[in-house]
């Protein structure tokens, strides 16, 4: 028995030693090797595709935190917060003095909340693969390659800010994936993304959180200085200037807080980088949250609360895995039905120094109020550029035509879609044309390249190709709208739904084409 007891004790000790060695040595070594391998693969991907990955992202959160805590402007804001002062907003009580240690603790919590922990491995080995799977499970993506190629002319030593219209919480995923082979974008994301596991996911992808309407001036000063810090260091950013999702499909009036912070930086004498603004247009044949957004618009004039935003985001996230799983099953059985196109296009990059010169603006000579006015003008001009690059997908075009016609034959709808397409072409607005249109696109390219063809014959051939494209666009749009009960068909006769809620959905998609307004 004594021998047995000693044998058991030795066995237990040996097992514990083996586990300790595994945890301390083997497991750490294996995980380290795995992380190193994934990081190396990510770097090779970035180098192979000449992806712009801003070196400042590798500096680490501690470095950014120290820089912000030692920032002169942040320190002055901390001292002012400790002294108290006038109310943050009219009608509110004056701010009471606060203990310096409480102020510092608040600032540190704000920095921890805002500053991301970018991971190249998370971005490329996991994030972009997951994004691609999610997008293709729900949509057929169309990227305007011609406009995207223009982005390669952006100088490597400049700071680029992508300004994107905001239609869906899916926008982050789509634009990030569309740009993955060119640049890793840091997004300003709203409070809806501050829930587990979204918070860790967005931070690993380089996203920084923004509390809109938060009353503490100290928070806004920390956010402002962080934004200026990453702009100074050349970090490529993605901003949604509307400040929130559109609830009627139309572009919203832009918010200028983040834009003003970036423009303020250009006044500082040590800021030497060129600043470029890149307009980005995104559009969908089906926005996953469209009915929820319209319900918010219908129910009240006030914007949704934080709880409602979180519930809406949770609903979309709960729906997405189901849609992915359903898409996989349908793909395996040959019955895949996706929600139509999601399309992305890019406008010509606007160099701010050129804009300032053409408008005779010198920000260094302006007061804060004058600079904010300038920021509004810049935002208005950039929103006009965004409006011109929002792609027309089949559903918005058909929704627009059916609202105008009410009831029409298939032939009349095709004609109206062709007329709308011609208007968009005249304004330089891209039209999303997927795989179904490869034949007509190749024929049109060959026609354009054949300079020896008879002019009348070329015009006739071009008209035929345009009619074929319009017919295909109309067919795709009608198919999706019939599936949702927004359009009905009897033989060759089409009729738009007359119910109030259904008309609102049609208007929502029609409004997504501001170039036709």
Brief overview:
Helix content is 57%, strand content 9%. The chain has 19 helices and 11 strands.
Observed structural traits:
globular; 517 residues; Glycerol-3-phosphate (1)-acyltransferase; 3-stranded antiparallel sheet; single chain; 11 strands; alpha/beta; 8-stranded mixed sheet
Describe this structure in words.
By secondary structure, this protein is an alpha/beta fold. The chain has helices at residues 2-48, 61-69, 72-83, 100-114, 120-138, 145-149, 171-178, 198-204, 217-232, 257-265, 290-299, 306-332, 352-358, 368-389, 394-405, 410-426, 438-449, 455-483, 500-510; strands spanning 140-143, 159-164, 186-189, 208-209, 237-239, 275-284, 341-346, 350-351, 407-409, 487-490, 493-496. The protein contains 19 helices and eleven strands. The strands form two sheets. Strands 1, 2, 3, 4, 5, 6, 7 and 8 form an eight-stranded mixed sheet that branches. It has a three-stranded antiparallel sheet with strand order 9-11-10. Helix 8 (198-204) links the parallel strand 3 (186-189) and strand 4.
């Amino acid at each position: 028995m004594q021998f047995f007891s000693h044998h058991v004790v030795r066995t237990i000790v040996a097992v514990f030693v083996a586990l300790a060695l595994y945890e301390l040595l083997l497991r750490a070594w294996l995980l380290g090797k795995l992380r190193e391998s994934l990081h190396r693969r990510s770097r090779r991907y970035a180098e192979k595709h000449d992806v712009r990955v801003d070196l400042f992202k590798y500096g680490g959160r501690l470095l950014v935190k120290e820089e912000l805590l030692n920032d002169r402007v942040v320190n002055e804001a901390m001292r002012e917060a400790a002294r108290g002062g006038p109310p943050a907003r009219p009608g509110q009580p004056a701010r009471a003095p606060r203990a310096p240690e409480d102020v510092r603790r608040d600032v540190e919590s704000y920095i921890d909340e805002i500053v991301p922990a970018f991971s190249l491995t998370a971005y490329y080995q996991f994030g972009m693969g997951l994004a691609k799977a999610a997008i293709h499970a729900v949509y057929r993506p169309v990227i305007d390659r011609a406009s995207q190629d223009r982005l390669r002319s952006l100088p490597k030593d400049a700071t680029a800010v992508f300004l994107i219209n905001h239609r869906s919480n899916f926008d982050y995923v789509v634009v990030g994936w569309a740009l993955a082979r060119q640049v890793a974008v840091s997004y300003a994301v709203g409070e809806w993304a501050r829930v587990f596991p979204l918070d860790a996911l967005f931070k690993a992808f380089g996203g920084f959180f923004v509390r809109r309407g938060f009353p503490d001036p100290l928070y806004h000063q920390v956010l402002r200085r962080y934004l200026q810090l990453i702009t100074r260091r050349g970090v490529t950013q993605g901003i949604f200037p509307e400040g929130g999702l559109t609830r009627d499909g139309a572009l919203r009036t832009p918010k200028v807080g983040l834009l003003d912070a970036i423009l303020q930086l250009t006044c500082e004498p040590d800021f030497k980088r060129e600043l470029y603004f890149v307009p980005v247009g995104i559009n969908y044949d089906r926005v996953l949250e469209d009915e929820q957004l319209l319900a918010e618009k219908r129910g009240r004039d006030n914007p949704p609360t934080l709880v409602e935003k979180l519930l809406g985001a949770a609903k979309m996230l709960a729906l997405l895995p189901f849609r992915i799983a359903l898409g996989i099953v349908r793909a395996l059985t040959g019955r895949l039905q996706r929600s139509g196109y999601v399309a992305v296009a890019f406008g010509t990059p606007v160099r701010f120094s050129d804009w300032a010169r053409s408008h005779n603006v010198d920000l260094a000579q302006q007061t804060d109020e004058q600079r904010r006015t300038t920021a509004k003008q810049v935002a208005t001009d950039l929103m006009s550029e965004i409006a011109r690059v929002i792609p027309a997908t089949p559903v918005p075009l058909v929704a627009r035509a059916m609202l105008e016609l009410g009831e029409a034959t298939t032939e009349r709808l095709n004609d109206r879609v062709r007329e709308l397409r011609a208007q968009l072409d005249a304004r330089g607005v891209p039209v999303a044309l997927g795989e179904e249109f490869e034949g007509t696109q190749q024929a049109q390219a060959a026609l354009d390249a054949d300079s020896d063809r008879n002019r009348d014959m070329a015009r006739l051939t071009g008209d035929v190709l345009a009619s074929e494209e319009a017919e295909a666009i109309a067919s795709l749009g009608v198919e999706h709208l019939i599936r949702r009960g927004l359009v009905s068909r009897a033989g060759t006769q089409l009729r738009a739904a007359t119910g109030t809620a259904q008309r609102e959905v049609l208007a929502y998609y029609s409004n997504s084409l501001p170039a036709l307004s």
